Amino acid sequence: MKQWIQSWNLIRLLRLALAITIIYQGIDLEQWLFVAIGGLLALMPLFNIGCCGASGCSTTFSKSKQNKETTYTEIK
């Protein structure tokens, strides 16, 4: 529990505060889509994940291809 609390930073707290604000405004205005979106946004700082989740945005590395030696012929 101590490690979980120590891993919080300012941006993570700000994201949680904004999500709670969106949830509150959604309840106040009876806009349930805002409540659902705020709930999803609140899960991100709680579980310490970003938009990409578990490296979902990473690109695959292509295998390096062996370059053939280029030969040039002189044209006169």
Automatic annotation (TrEMBL):
Report keywords, A-Z: Membrane, Transmembrane, Transmembrane helix
Q: Where are the transmembrane segments?
A: 7-27, 33-57
Please state what the protein is called.
DUF2892 domain-containing protein
The species is Paenimyroides viscosum
